């Protein structure tokens, strides 16, 4: 059966150098259980059809509220995916997240009803994302290949093999009527910007002049930025090591080096020996702001996966306690510090509690609190589809509780650095201002709100920094 034995392998096209209302994004139809986990399609593991089904499964899981990294881990295991297939599934799933508003609107225009089961809809989202690359990005596959492989993918799934003709019809119609369909779809904000409407509104309210560039930055591909461990190497020497390895890079911060193109960490010189860590240039501002000196007692209160903990220990010989409420994520702090050859006292605990504390005040506290993560959507394009408007308020309430609790653990004259990866003032500046008033805290110089940017010499995520000192 030719349908079941496609010979096409995953070879993306070489890259050059350089109306009907759309469905709501959280579909209102009931999410039925579907054979997506525990199901391995009878397709060659190196075919695009196999990768499309894997990515479609991730889109379906997202509709159930599952974050993309967890959805990917589930499908990799269920599909027994090879390294090559994992790469292809991940690439398509991330493209689908960045194009979900647009492809949902297109499906709403072309399908008579919301595709069932959700994984079938996910297959259309993924195939359309491949057919309709964002402006300026080359298409990764020939259009006829995408259509052919999407139809094969549908045919290979027992729950929607019957819909393969519909998949073929929708994708071919998109090819034929692309311009008029896009003209209709793009009248709607979520399709135009690829964010939920509430997110677009919140960004416009907070940044009346910059909202468009902020939304655009959030759809860009994030750079891979490294932090050079100054205990082990200087930035100039490390740049030379990268050049020797044939990896183009430039310095974008005191210890930050941005790679021209992302590579697997296994290929990064010195990664396994702790010479470098992967960390956004904006996140690398945290540890130096703490003004650390040897011998200080330091608390990293929301520490996982440990990016900033590692940086703190690279800068000074401090007595670090790192806590996080998520025991699984805390294991990653141990792994990361182990790779760097550094150590800290670790505790799985809520930063709003004191049960874990020995009562000895800290000289420095880093509060990198949980937030909507609206400033790091270029790295996590699924976040916008998972968050609800009400999350901002709930997370801001928890952060206030955390900050009030941590303040009691700080010694007089000590410093507390409040960090979020949010763009919303309710979680950042408004929170900082209210905190300073509640506690009569002295506010020291800190960057405040950093908007996400991918400018050549200054590339960072959207982060917020406020530094407080306790009166002596
Ligand atoms: C922004 S991330 C921290 C990133 C980390 N500082 C780094 O640089 O790698 C926020 C962390 O807060 C943790 N968290 C959430 N609620 C918490 C709470 N109530 N107490 C402590 N940690 C919490 C989450 O598990 C998450 O790991």
Name the descriptors.
472 residues; Rossmann fold; Alpha-Beta Plaits; 4-stranded antiparallel beta sheet; alpha/beta; transferase; MeTrfase_RsmB-F_NOP2_cat; binds S-adenosylmethionine; S-adenosyl-L-methionine; single chain; 3 domains; 16S rRNA (Cytosine(967)-C(5))-methyltransferase RsmB; disordered N terminus; 7-stranded mixed beta sheet; N-utilizing Substance Protein B Homolog, Chain A; 13 strands
What does the model show?
This protein has 472 residues and is α/β, with parallel strands linked by helices. The chain has 3 domains: 2-188, Orthogonal Bundle (N-utilizing Substance Protein B Homolog, Chain A); 223-279, Sun protein, domain 3 (Alpha-Beta Plaits, 2-Layer Sandwich), CATH 3.30.70.1170; 284-469, Vaccinia Virus protein VP39 (Rossmann fold, 3-Layer(aba) Sandwich), CATH 3.40.50. It is 42% helix and 15% strand. The chain has helices at residues 48-63, 68-78, 83-98, 100-110, 118-131, 143-155, 164-185, 189-193, 197-206, 211-218, 235-244, 286-289, 307-315, 327-340, 383-386, 389-407, 429-439; strands spanning 224-228, 249-251, 256-259, 276-278, 297-300, 319-324, 345-348, 362-368, 410-420, 442-450, 453-455, 458-460, 463-469. The strands form 3 sheets. It has a 7-stranded mixed beta sheet with strand order 7-6-5-8-9-13-10, sandwiched between helices. A 4-stranded antiparallel beta sheet has the order 2-3-1-4, with helices on one face. A hairpin with a 2-residue loop joins strand 11 and strand 12 (458-460). Helix 1 crosses helix 2 (68-78), helix 3 packs across helix 5 (118-131) and helix 9 packs across helix 10 (211-218). The radius of gyration is 24 Å and the shape is globular. Residues 1-34 have low confidence and may be disordered. S-adenosylmethionine is lined by residues 283, 302-308, 324-326, 329, 350-352, 368, 370, 402, 421.
């Amino acid at each position: 059966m030719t349908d079941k034995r496609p010979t096409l392998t995953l070879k993306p096209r070489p890259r050059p150098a350089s109306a009907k209302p759309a469905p709501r994004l959280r579909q209102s139809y009931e999410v039925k259980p579907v054979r997506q986990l525990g199901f391995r399609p009878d397709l060659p593991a190196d075919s695009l059809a196999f990768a499309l089904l894997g990515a479609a499964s991730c889109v379906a899981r997202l509709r159930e509220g599952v974050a993309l990294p967890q959805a990917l881990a589930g499908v990799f295991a269920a599909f027994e995916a090879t390294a090559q297939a994992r790469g292809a599934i991940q690439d398509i799933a991330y493209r689908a997240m960045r194009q979900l508003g647009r492809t949902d609107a297109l499906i709403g225009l072309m399908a008579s009803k919301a595709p069932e089961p959700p994984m079938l809809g996910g297959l259309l989202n993924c195939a359309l994302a491949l057919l309709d690359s964002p402006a300026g990005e080359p298409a990764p596959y020939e259009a006829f290949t995408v259509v052919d492989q999407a139809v094969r993918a549908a045919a290979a799934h027992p729950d929607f093999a019957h819909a393969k003709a519909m998949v073929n019809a929708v994708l071919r119609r998109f090819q034929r009527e692309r311009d008029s369909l896009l003209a209709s779809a793009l009248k709607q904000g979520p399709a135009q910007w690829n964010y939920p409407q509430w997110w677009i509104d919140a960004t416009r309210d907070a940044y009346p002049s910059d909202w468009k560039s902020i939304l655009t930055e959030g759809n860009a591909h994030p750079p891979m930025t490294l932090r050079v461990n100054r205990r082990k190497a200087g930035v100039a020497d490390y740049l030379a090591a990268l050049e020797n390895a044939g990896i183009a890079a430039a310095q974008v911060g005191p210890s930050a080096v941005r790679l021209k193109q992302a590579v697997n960490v296994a290929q990064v010189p010195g990664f396994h020996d702790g010479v470098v860590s992967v960390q956004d240039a904006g996140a690398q501002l945290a540890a130096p702001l703490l003004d650390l000196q040897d011998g200080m007692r330091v608390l990293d209160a929301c520490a996982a996966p440990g990016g900033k903990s590692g940086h703190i220990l690279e800068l000074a010989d401090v007595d670090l306690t790192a806590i996080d409420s998520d025991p699984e994520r805390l294991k990653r702090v141990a792994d990361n510090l182990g790779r760097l050859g550094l150590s800290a006292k670790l505790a799985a605990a809520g930063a709003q509690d004191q049960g874990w504390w020995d009562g000895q005040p800290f000289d420095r506290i880093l509060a990198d609190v949980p937030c909507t993560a609206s400033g790091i959507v270029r790295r996590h394009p699924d976040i916008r589809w998972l968050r609800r408007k009400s999350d901002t308020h709930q997370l801001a309430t928890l952060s206030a509780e955390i900050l009030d609790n941590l303040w009691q653990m700080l010694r007089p004259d000590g410093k507390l650095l409040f960090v979020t990866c949010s763009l919303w003032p309710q979680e950042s500046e408004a929170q900082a201002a209210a905190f300073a008033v509640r506690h009569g805290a002295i506010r020291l110089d800190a960057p405040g709100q950093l908007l996400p940017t991918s400018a050549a010499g200054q590339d960072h995520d959207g982060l917020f920094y406020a530094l407080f000192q306790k009166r002596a």
